[in-house]
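Feature request, filed as a ticket because there's no other form

It would be nice if the structure record came with a short human-readable summary line next to the tokens. Right now we just get the raw output. Example of a typical job, pasted below so the devs can see what we mean:
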Amino acid sequence: MEDRINSFPPFIDKDSKILILGTVPGVKSLEMQQYYAHPQNHFWKIMFHLLAEPMTSDYEKKVAMLQRNGIAIWDTIESCVRKGSKDTDIKNEEANDIAELLKEFPNIKAVFCNGQKAFKNLSKQLKNKEVGINFYGLPSTSPLHTVGFEKKLPEWEQILHYL
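Raw output as currently delivered:
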């Protein structure tokens, strides 16, 4: 049976300069109530590498590192039906109001999408809306996306231009 799942609240504050958007938390993230909780997801490894910060497994310290560096995270989907963690299995999705979030936090200079589905969702949401900032699609950090860490990292380095 497929259950309706919900995204987490955004981690964002008035000092956030960039917003990273995923689609919706996967099974492990929902179980742990943490963004990017699957141990094979490259998100945190990429962030620690880009920000030259020492790696930690402490979730609160991970989130604090992002906020200290002006990085906010959220998802493009507020709720959906999905069995498992694959974006291709998402059905009946309801969008988070990204345009409203960007109005509420005007210091955001750019939005980066973690994977193609997040990018497509954002493109659809912001179509015909004046948001005045650039948004980019990046390779998914998901372990289901078979591109290795070394190939993902150079594309994710674009974030540094906005910090």
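Something like this underneath would help us a lot:
The helical segments are 27-32, 43-50, 59-68, 98-104, 116-126, 149-156.
The CA atoms of residues 41 and 143 lie 5 Å apart.
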